[in-house]
Amino acid sequence: MSRTTAFLAVAFTGGIAAGIVGAVITRPGIGVSPDSIVYMAAAQSITEGHGITMPAANGQDVPLTHFPPGYPLALAFTAFFFAHHFLLAAKALNILLFGANTALVAGWVYRRTRRLSLAAFSLVISIFALDFLRIYSMAWSEPLFLFLTFGGLLFLDFYIEVPSPLVGEGKGLLLLAALFSAAAVLTRYAGIAGICAGLLAVFFCQKKRLRQKLKESTLFGFVAGLPIALWLWRNFLLTHDATTRKFVFHPVLGQIRLAAQSTLSLWLFQGQLPIAWTSWVGTVIVLVFGFLWLRYKKPSLSPHFLLPLLFLLSYTILMVAIILFVEAQLLVPDEYDRILCPLHVVFLIAFLAAVPEGVWPRIVRNVFGLTAIGASFFFVYASAGTISEFAQEGQQFANTSWKTSPTLEVVRHIAPTMHVYTNGRMPIYLYLHRPCFEIPPKVLLSSLQPNPDYQKVMKKIAEEVRQGIAVVVDFFDRRSAPVPDVGRMANAVASFTAKNR
After folding, report:
1. What is the pLDDT of residue 202?
2. Would you give the distance in Å from CA 54 to the centre of its chain?
3. Residue 486 in contact with residue 439, Cβ under 8 Å?
């Protein structure tokens, strides 16, 4: 059996294994968060012929602008095969993408290293890393985003090898890379990092004349950037706002540092070590490997080695800028684990691609091999509890406690003419398809600053309740993030509280 055939067999087996794990962790149903409900509501609007919209609190359809349309469109297409059951469609799509992305990462590693052992190691990490398990267990856009982003980068990797001008195979590969990058940014706005990495790769990963590089980068940038430009222009025409996001500086550098430490703990140790220890141990590991690599690296590096590093740089700068100036709530632990998963993938690829770039002594190769074997067993062992937990209970709004919530049963019998104000607008829409209004937060998650309109809106709610035209529904859960203390309004408003949810 040739090495390529052996790799294909290993990659296929790894993809199937990832799909099986994906089916296990979504056995109770795909996890549902507020973002998931927005995606599914938009997908339903698409299938019903209402365009790319979602229902507002007043029951009217409003254009979707906060998120790009890629994932709702994919959900709408997939739901066609599941009788428009969007939860099943999201589950099937995630299982498929779990297998495809796992094989894709292994393929890129094998292409760059030609070592079956490194490709197999990447399969284990891609399947059992906790942040990957989490994104594939939720109805989120990340799995599709990973497939499109790294598919585009892989086509760029192939394109870098083509010495000919923009004709034949070379032009086709560049266009495919641009189309995948365009689809990625239409799935998540953060896909702009892939376009930036692609433009940088055209300039720095090839030895061509400047004029030729300008032609190639112009073609790539135009094809990759035009769809998202048209989408943002559509948003502005319909709502006078491109994405509903506001630019405000957030002084959260200390929180970014803590998030980086937590992320390092998750990536290297599955979150099993205290964050304080992770900072030291992780830094030592990175420095030791960096020292050895600089000591034993080959005199000339492959230009392909730069491509994942360019994406790593582009995505990191973009995320820091977004957190500092747009969305500080991304520093919430569940959020930054999710948004940084593309960095985890490219970090894994770059790390493994660096191994064959060195001429290692036998003792170093043996240490690497033993470390990889030990890490593989550790990742599988550390993920067992998470897989078991996901397989027994649905995540977030798909959890059994939400499905059996007595508060939801009370809401079911509230007159349709009543205004409902709640801190659980999303689950009410998910299970009852009833429009309702969100109770204002005391602290704005977008800026982590006090909400200046909180008292004014709460007084308005209280007045409507006194008039008998509104009711407040409070979902109480000590494990959840802080929500407005509507319990204090119990003497002024009618409040239904379910202590178990």
Report:
1. 87
2. 21
3. yes
Handedness of CA 298, 301, 302, 305 (dihedral sign): positive
Q: Is the overall model pTM greater than 0.85, yes or no?
A: yes
Residues 6+ apart with CB under 8 A from 10: 106, 116, 119, 120, 123
> Which residue in this structure is represented by tokens 């906790």?
130
Neighbours of 57 (CB within 10 A): 15
pLDDT beneath 50, residues of the chain: 478-501
The token pair that represents 134 in the structure block: 């989490």
Helix (H) or strand (E) holding 62: strand 61-63
Q: Given this model, what pLDDT does residue 486 score?
A: 40
CB atoms within 10 A of CB 25: 26
pLDDT of residue 440: 84
- d(CA 29, CA 437) in angstroms, rounded, equals 27
Classify residue 162 as exposed, middle or buried by CB count within 10 Å of its CB (0-12, 13-18, 19+): middle
> Considering the chain, what percentage of its residues have pLDDT values greater than 90?
41
Residue whose entry in the numeric block shows the structure tokens 């940084």: 340
Q: Give the DSSP per-residue string, 435-454.
A: --EEPPPSEETTTTEE-TTH
DSSP line for 111-173: HHH--HHHHHHHHHHHHH-HHHHHHHTBS-SHHHHHHHHHHHHHHHHHHHT--S-SSHHHHHH
